[in-house]
Each structure stands twice: as C-alpha cells, then as structure tokens.
UniProtKB/TrEMBL annotation:
Gene for this chain: TRIM3
SMART domains per the UniProt record, alphabetical: DED
Recorded GO MF terms: ubiquitin protein ligase activity
Tree of life domain: Eukaryota
Transmembrane stretches, start-end: none
Species this protein is from: Branchiostoma lanceolatum
Name of protein: TRIM3 protein
Length: 665
C-alpha cells in the first residue's frame, strides 16, 4: 500500500469526528492551524475555500492532466492533493502546477499565497544546502590549516635537526684532526729517535776505527825506526796482519751500505674517512584531481631533496582500500621542476614520478610510497568520492522533459543531441547534452528502443514495427516484425542501414536489411556460443560488430557484422567485475563497452550497488575496467544506455522516470 503523505494524514485526522470518550488532554494534543506547516495550512485553506463548482472544475482539470476521470470523479480535495503529490506534480518547493490550477479556478490570492509558500520552502532548502556546504568548506579550511601548521613544524624540526647534525660533524672532525696531529707528532718523534740512536752508534764505530788507524800508524813508525832485522821482521808480520784485517773490515763496511735508510709509507687518502652521512630521501604524494570511484586520476611522487635517488629504480605506490585490499601503482619518471641554486651552486632537478590510479570503490584509501625494499617512505589518505551523476533530469509526467517509463536513449555525437524513447507517452523526446529540451514527436505506439544514424535519421522499434523518422520527426518508412519476432525489444542500426533486433521471448538476435528483409537469425535458448537466455539490448561498435547483453546468462556476446560469433565475457557474481542481469549496452569509438546491470529484484524504493544495479565498463576484449555504483543517487531500473565522445554515458532509468548522465572515462 502506498504510504500517505504527512499533510494528507493531518487533514484526515482533523476531519475525524470527536467522540465523547476523548479526554481534554487528547483534544489539546491535536495541532492547531498555527502549529501546522505552511504547506499544510495552505492545503487546508484551499480545501475550505472550494465551492461545489470549484470542485467540479478542479476534477475536470486534473482529469485532462492525466490523473484519470475515474480517479478524481468522487475524490475529496484532500484525496486529489494526495494524488498530485504521488504523481510528483506538487510537493515541497514544487507548487508551480498548483499555482496554475488555482489561477484557472480564479483563486488569485490563494495562487499568490502558494507562490509565497513555494518561495519560502525553496529558500529554506537553499539555506539548508548553503549551511551544509559552509560546514564542508570550514572543515576543509580547518584541514588545510592543520596541514600548514604541520608543515611549519616539520620545517622547524628539520632546521633543528640539521643544526644539531652540523655541530656533531664539527665536533667529530675536531676530534679527528686532533688525533691526526697526535699521530703526526708520534711519527716524527720515532724518526728523530731512530736518527739519534743511529748517529751515536755510527760515532762509536768511527772512534773505534780511528783508534785502529792510529795503532797501525804507530806500528809502521816503529818498523821504520827499527834497526834490528829480527825485530823488523816481527813488526812487518804484525803490519801485514793489521792490513789484512783493515781490508776485510772495509769490505764488510761496503756490504752494509743502505742499512741506515728510513722510509715512510703513507696510507691512501681515500682510505681515510671521518664518518658517513645518511639522508633518508623524503617523498611526497599528490593526487592531481579529485579521486572518484571508477575514474582515472594522476598520482605523482616527488622527492623532497634533489638527486637523492639515482639510477633507474622507480618508486611504487601501494594503495589500501577501505576493505583492506591492496594494489600497486607502477610509476614512470617525469621531468621535475628545477630547484633554485644558491650562490656558487649549479641548478639541480627534483625527481618526479607519475602513475595512473583508478579507484574501484568509494571511501578512505591509504597511498604509501615503496622503493628499494623499503615501505611507507611517505603516505597519503585520500577520500574517494562516489561516481554520482553529473546530470539528472526528468520525472513522471507527460509534459515536456517529463517521462513515463523511458526505456532507451541514443546520442548523435556530431550534433550533440540525445534522444529518449518515452515509452508510455508514445513519443521520442530530443534534448541537448546538458538536458535542455529541444523537441519531441509522436511514435503513435509505445517506443521501446531507438538508434540515430549519422545523417540524423531516427530508427525506432515501436511495438512490433521498425519505424524510420526524419530528423524533424516525420515518419518516412516502416516495416513489420511480427512474421519473425514474438517480443522484439532492443534495436541497433549498422552504418549501411541494416537493423539488428533482440527478441528475449525467442532468445534470438535478428539481422534485417533496411527494407525489412530478413538476413539472418542467430540464437535459441541455452548457454553455448551463439545461444541466449532472454537477450534484451544490443548495440554496434564502430566496425559494426554486434554486441549483445545476454541477460539471464549474465554475460555479453560479441558477433561480427554478419552475426558470426567472435567471443564472450562475463559471469554471474557480486564482485565489481561480475554481472547480474546485463541490460542496456553501448560502445564508444575506442571500442570500450558500457553495460547497465538491472540487478536483483528489490523493493520499490530500493536500488543501487547493494542489489547489483550498476554500470560497468569493459575493454573491447572483455577486460573489466571499472564499475560505477552511483551510491549518492542509486539506480533503480536501468535500461538503455548511450555514450558520448567526451567520456560520458546517459542511462534511462524506468524506475525513477528520469535520465542520468555519468562520466565513465
């Protein structure tokens, strides 16, 4: 049962007759008019002011606007207000339709009061949003202030650290110089001692030799003075013996030349080291743009010193997700900005590396620098945002820009137009890529899928017919599908005009010529190659390959332009890369495939990634790239999708009767 809005409940309670059993306190607990919200008071005033004729006119207006004659014929004003709110015609801050109705009923003052209430509610909503963003800005400023203070503290700590190390270096080299000077003095003293000892030894030896020479001289003189032949003979023999000894002594003295040489072997200066200086190269990590789930962003690693990391080794970035899963980002060297050179110095370059990061979930991630076996050289916490729509427009209704069960979308890239199959309103609506309404045209029957050719021709599958419309919306050709298809659904058009149709009831894909002639049928229920289980949507890529969302098989199959099987990918599961009910499918000019999963069955107001209602991006070979969860604006029943050349995708959500636009590249 649909929940009744608050204003209806209050009005309903107000009209209940009082019973005698009610106490005074119970009566006092009922809200007075002053205690009701402005919107509720307005509804009460309108209800009280309507005459029987006003009620008849009101019922007629609402019946014309699509609420149905049967619904409004016996409805009270309160019930009609309830219908309008349920149909999203009126609500808080949205009273434009009510103002028009009141003016039609010639209730000018009430219309003016409704406009004032609308303005007040919108103003309150703006103030609420402004307060929210003010708090966010103040929180951001607080974080930046804290970071600046932390940097100031780091600058002070670095200066104090370097000053202390400088003192330690000076003290160390003073001790080293003192030690070297002492060693120098000791070496000189040793040399001087050797010199003194050797000098005394040589002087003693010299005196001995001089004494021997004197004795020989005396013996020679005695021999010359001797007159006795016998004594002279004895003296001569003594002299010969002395000369022989002197001759031997001279030979010994010559053989000892060089024994007094003193040498010094200095140590190599390269072997002398007063110590070593270790500097841990600090790194900083920076994410160049806001990190958003499923979208690529640039991450840089910069050294805080110049040329402290030589060689070809590049750092890696280890990323830890909110769930504790770790991945590695590889980096490559970039050219860093030059550091300012001091007086007498050469300009140096700071080392910079860069890599691409595509976070796969929202929430707080931790990035750490790893290099040379060392981890956590620097870290950064990044709060990754959900990939929410960059644009959302539409609501249930039949007016311009409103929808009733939109099933499919198509984009004409050269003209920047987007087309919506507005199924139950039996029309196609045309918008620019910013969501601004441009035009619409009738399809007579319910359109379920559409495609736009490069010449602007719009091809629509409407019930069991394929209809071709001119760019202005004029029907120019059609052909029936009933002979071959029992439940035609998705449609795609190749460059030569051939039409591809998916039939989930026949579990088949059909290829037709532009005039409706059947070219080929592929399929049958099953899980083999070229078999399907309720395929709904199809698309073609730039080579006219046919891509099929095989819904109940939870996979995608790819065929060439003539419906010959090429490859398949995907399987059922709850992991980001797995599929549950692939539905809408589109391919961009690079061959990337964007897929909408309709997910599991859930309550009317429940959607989102929890039930696998998500968008996925795959490379042409089926490699998973990313998943868009849209947690901030949950998908309910995503159907057809269409990509743009600037990396965005439009999604038709039949559950919310709206179109959403996401960035996927």
């Amino acid at each position: 049962m649909r929940r009744k809005p608050k204003f209806y409940t209050r009005l309903h309670n107000k009209q209940k007759p009082e019973t005698p059993s009610r106490t005074v306190s119970t009566l006092r607990s009922r809200p007075t008019m002053a205690e009701l919200s402005p919107l509720t008071r307005l509804f009460v005033k309108i209800s009280d002011s309507l005459s029987e004729e006003d009620l008849r006119n009101l019922r007629a207006i609402l019946a014309r606007e699509g609420l149905g004659q049967g619904k409004v014929e016996q409805a009270t004003p309160h019930e009609m207000f309830n219908m309008l709110e349920a149909d999203n015609r009126i609500g808080k801050g949205n009273l434009g339709f009510l103002v028009q109705v009141l003016r039609s009923l010639k209730k000018g003052k009430l219309a003016e009061e409704a406009e004032l209430v609308q303005q007040q509610e919108r103003r309150e909503e703006v103030e609420k949003v402004a307060a929210k963003y003010k708090a966010s800005v103040e929180a951001a400023i607080s974080k930046i202030t804290q970071k600046v203070e932390a940097l100031k503290s780091e600058i002070t700590a670095t200066a104090e650290n370097c000053e202390q190390v400088e003192k330690e270096i000076q003290q160390h080299y003073k001790r080293l110089i003192s030690k070297l000077q002492l060693e120098e003095q000791e070496m000189i003293t040793r040399v001087q001692r050797v010199n003194r000892d050797r000098e005394g030894e040589l002087k003693d030896k010299m005196e001995t030799e001089l004494k021997k020479t004197k004795e020989a001289e005396i013996s020679v003189q005695k021999m010359l003075d001797c007159k006795d032949d016998t004594e002279a003979l004895v003296l001569r023999q003594d002299m010969e013996e002395r000369f022989k000894k002197l001759s031997l002594q001279e030979s010994d003295d010559r053989s000892g030349e060089g024994l007094t040489k003193v040498t010094f072997q200095p140590c190599s200066l390269s072997q002398v080291s007063g110590g070593s200086l270790s500097v841990f190269a600090g790194f900083s990590i920076d994410v160049q743009e806001p990190a958003v789930e499923s979208l690529p962003c640039s991450v840089t690693v910069t050294t805080n010193k110049a040329d402290l990391t030589g060689g070809d080794v590049a750092p890696q970035i280890e990323v830890t997700s909110p769930q504790g899963k770790t991945t590695l980002i590889q980096t490559t060297a970039h050219t860093g900005p030059p550091l300012a050179a001091g007086k007498g110095q050469t300009s140096r370059v700071r080392r910079v590396w860069g890599g691409e990061w595509r976070p796969q979930e929202s929430g707080k991630h931790t990035l750490r620098v790893c290099m040379g076996g060392k981890k956590d050289l620097s870290s950064l916490t990044v709060d990754v945002g959900s990939n929410n729509p960059v644009l959302r427009f539409g609501q249930r209704g039949s007016q311009q820009g409103q929808f009733d069960g939109p099933r499919d979308v198509a984009v004409r890239g050269d003209r920047l137009y987007m087309y919506v199959a507005d199924t139950w309103n039996q029309r196609v609506q045309v918008f620019d890529l910013s969501g601004k309404f441009c035009s619409s045209f009738s399809t007579t029957t319910n359109p379920g899928s559409l495609a736009v050719q490069t010449n602007g021709t719009i091809v629509v599958r409407s019930l069991k017919e394929v209809k071709t419309f001119s760019p202005s919306g004029k029907l120019v050709h059609k052909f029936p599908l009933g002979e071959y298809c029992t439940d035609p659904y998705g449609l795609a058009v190749q460059r030569d005009g051939r039409v591809v149709i998916a039939d989930p009831d026949k579990h088949s894909i059909f290829l037709f010529e532009a005039d409706g002639t059947l070219v080929k049928q592929v399929g049958g229920q099953g899980q083999g190659e070229g078999q399907f289980d309720k395929p709904r949507f199809v698309c073609v890529d730039k080579e006219d390959n046919i891509i099929v969302a095989d819904k109940i098989n939870h996979r995608v199959q790819v065929f060439d332009k003539n419906l010959n099987f090429k490859h398949k990918f995907g399987q059922k599961g709850r992991q980001p890369q797995n599929m549950i009910g692939p539905n809408g499918v589109s391919a961009d000019s690079r061959g990337n495939i964007v897929l909408a999963n309709i997910g599991e069955k859930s309550g009317d107001d429940v959607g989102g990634i929890k039930h696998s209602k998500k968008l996925q991006v795959f490379r042409p070979d089926g490699t998973w790239v990313s998943t868009i969860s849209s947690d901030g604006d949950k998908l309910k029943r995503p159907h057809g999708v269409a990509v743009t050349e600037d990396g965005h995708v439009f999604v038709a959500d039949t559950g919310h009767n709206c179109i959403r636009k996401y960035r996927y590249m």
